[in-house]
Automatic annotation (TrEMBL):
<comment type="function">
    <text>Allows the formation of correctly charged Asn-tRNA(Asn) or Gln-tRNA(Gln) through the transamidation of misacylated Asp-tRNA(Asn) or Glu-tRNA(Gln) in organisms which lack either or both of asparaginyl-tRNA or glutaminyl-tRNA synthetases. The reaction takes place in the presence of glutamine and ATP through an activated phospho-Asp-tRNA(Asn) or phospho-Glu-tRNA(Gln).</text>
</comment>
<dbReference type="InterPro" id="IPR017958">
    <property type="entry name" value="Gln-tRNA_amidoTrfase_suB_CS"/>
</dbReference>
<dbReference type="GO" id="GO:0016740">
    <property type="term" value="F:transferase activity"/>
</dbReference>
<dbReference type="InterPro" id="IPR003789">
    <property type="entry name" value="Asn/Gln_tRNA_amidoTrase-B-like"/>
</dbReference>
<keyword id="KW-0648">Protein biosynthesis</keyword>
<dbReference type="InterPro" id="IPR023168">
    <property type="entry name" value="GatB_Yqey_C_2"/>
</dbReference>
<keyword id="KW-0436">Ligase</keyword>
<comment type="subunit">
    <text>Heterotrimer of A, B and C subunits.</text>
</comment>
<keyword id="KW-0067">ATP-binding</keyword>
<dbReference type="InterPro" id="IPR018027">
    <property type="entry name" value="Asn/Gln_amidotransferase"/>
</dbReference>
<dbReference type="InterPro" id="IPR017959">
    <property type="entry name" value="Asn/Gln-tRNA_amidoTrfase_suB/E"/>
</dbReference>
<dbReference type="InterPro" id="IPR014746">
    <property type="entry name" value="Gln_synth/guanido_kin_cat_dom"/>
</dbReference>
<comment type="similarity">
    <text>Belongs to the GatB/GatE family. GatB subfamily.</text>
</comment>
<dbReference type="GO" id="GO:0050566">
    <property type="term" value="F:asparaginyl-tRNA synthase (glutamine-hydrolyzing) activity"/>
</dbReference>
<protein>
    <recommendedName>
        <fullName>Aspartyl/glutamyl-tRNA(Asn/Gln) amidotransferase subunit B</fullName>
        <ecNumber>6.3.5.-</ecNumber>
    </recommendedName>
</protein>
<feature type="domain" description="Asn/Gln amidotransferase">
    <location>
        <begin position="354"/>
        <end position="503"/>
    </location>
</feature>
<dbReference type="Pfam" id="PF02934">
    <property type="entry name" value="GatB_N"/>
</dbReference>
């Protein structure tokens, strides 16, 4: 048996207005193909003779913000270095990066994995470093020709390097998803892998189970989705396992590319070491202090903290809390829904004389289950069918909270509530108004309900006789008949109670 040893090198492109070392527009929030190639370029980012770079202060602040969120240790003084390599996408022949004194070192990010007995378990993924650098251009391959679009060159990047501590492909995917979520919560990047705003190189080696030695690693490139990261690592585990079983494990550092079509990794080159890049301090940029920025930067509530709070404060299940905090827009929507929900709970007559804390405590679990189910299962499901994004949702948090109140107070049953939600999704109007106009509300008149029950019992004498003889499962058949008789506008629990009362005689 062999144990995987996995480490990740992640680049996150910051969504600053301008590039890292020049004033060119940073078009990281759009797909680069939407604009003409080489539109956003200047002598600085294309490396013309005699030009001088100037550091983007916003990029420094956002790097510090990410560093704080990752619990890292900041260097009191940091600097930029030149990293030399020759490739068409690097017009200067070097990249301005950081080598021995990065912005941040160490740090960690906690992820939720599946532990013993399939129970959730937190794992701390420790980091080596995080540094700032500029992006390269984009190569466009057309047959035998390679074209270069310099719109992206010079865009600000933060590179985060993990310790080789990830134990499986699924852990690597979870870590990347959590890091993407963190970048979005901090509002420093959209971190969209398909647009190249988040890029990952995965390093993997195997070792015999119980062995603590590190063996030569293989770096996998061309990973542009979370599934690609997971599949490429799974493939490499299989490939390297076969080499170990043959007594011929990898003996040198190497780089392989992931072929999404073939679902295999293919050898590219022997991996470079740091000395191959001939690092030296960037002569045009002096060393800089981060102390002022560190004091200035504050953090918002982070994803994991919000997840825990949603469970404790709103009574949401772990699964629902995770789904609703995995997108910042959904998390904000949920927050507003509950704020409105507590407001109408406070206004109920039966809540008079109770403090807000008592009301919330009493109703947390019930409202949490109700809201969680309707948000994650019903609303999200309908929106997925209609391809509606939360950012263009017509339903307001106020209207959704009112919708929940109608269900909570038994003014509408679940089947009719789903019809109502569909109407709200299309029109975005007040739920009570729609319910009344479409006559979706429950019949609460006792005389009407009793007449419907008596009618059903009269029309189904055989089932009544069987029920009274002990076949009590037929209660569901009779409930269904009453629901049909009333066009689904009555409370099934009220119907059951009335039927059981009538069937005793």
């Amino acid at each position: 048996m062999y144990t995987p040893v996995i480490g990740l090198e992640i680049h996150i492109q910051l969504k600053t207005k301008s590039k890292m070392f020049c004033g060119c527009e940073n078009r990281n929030e759009t797909v680069y193909g939407e604009v003409a190639p080489n539109t956003f370029v200047c002598p600085v980012c294309t490396g013309q003779p005699g030009v001088l770079p100037v550091v983007n202060e916003q990029a420094l602040e956002w790097a510090v913000k990410m560093g704080k969120a990752l619990h890292g240790n900041f260097n009191a003084t940091s600097k930029f270095d030149r990293k030399h390599y020759f490739y068409p996408d690097l017009p200067k022949g070097y990249q301005i990066s950081q080598y021995d004194v990065p912005v941040m070192e160490q740090g960690y990010l906690e992820i939720e994995t599946v532990g013993a007995n399939q129970q959730p378990e937190l794992k701390k993924i420790e980091l080596i470093r995080m540094h700032l650098e500029e992006d390269a251009a984009k190569n466009i391959h057309q047959g035998k020709n390679t074209l270069v679009d310099f719109n992206r060159v010079g865009a600000p990047l933060i590179e985060i390097v993990t310790q080789p501590i990830l134990a499986s492909p699924s852990e690597a995917k979870i870590f990347l998803q959590e890091l993407r979520l963190l970048a979005r919560y901090l509002n420093i990047s959209n971190a969209d892998m398909e647009k190249g705003e988040l890029r990952c190189d995965a390093n993997i080696s195997l070792r015999p189970e119980g062995d603590t030695k590190f063996y030569p690693k293989t770096e996998i490139k061309n990973l542009n989705s979370f599934k690609a990261v997971e599949r490429a690592l799974e493939y490499e585990i299989q490939r390297q396992t076969k080499l170990w079983n043959k007594g011929n494990p990898p003996s040198t550092l190497s780089t392989r590319g992931w072929d999404e079509v073939k679902q295999v990794t293919e050898e590219q080159r022997v991996k470079e070491e740091a000395e191959d890049y001939r690092y030296f301090p960037e002569p045009d940029l002096p060393a800089f202090s981060l102390s002022g920025i560190i004091k200035k930067v504050s953090l918002p509530e982070l994803p994991r903290a919000r997840r825990v709070r949603f469970m404790e404060e709103y009574g949401l299940s772990r699964a629902d809390a995770k789904i609703l905090t995995d997108d910042l827009a959904w998390a904000n929507f949920t927050e507003q829904v509950f704020a409105e929900a507590w407001a109408w709970l406070n206004s109920l007559p039966e809540m008079d004389g109770q403090t807000e804390e008592e009301i919330i405590k009493k109703n947390r679990a019930k409202l949490g289950r109700l809201a969680g189910g309707w948000l994650t299962s019903k609303l999200m499901g309908l929106m997925a069918e209609e391809k509606i994004d939360i950012r263009i949702l017509k339903i307001t948090p106020e209207n959704f909270a009112e919708f929940l109140s109608l269900i909570y107070l038994n003014k509408i049953n679940s089947a009719k509530a789903l019809e109502l939600l569909k109407e709200m999704l299309a029109a975005g109007e007040d739920p009570t108004q729609i319910m009344e106009e479409k006559q979706l509300g429950q019949v609460t008149d006792e005389n009407t309900l009793e007449k419907a029950v008596i009618t059903v019992l009269r029309l189904n004498p055989e089932q009544v006789k069987q029920y009274q003889s002990g076949k009590t499962v037929l209660i569901q058949f009779l409930i269904g008949k009453v629901m049909k008789e009333t066009e689904g506008k009555v409370d099934p629990q009220a119907v059951k109670k009335l039927l059981e009362g009538k069937l005793k005689f």
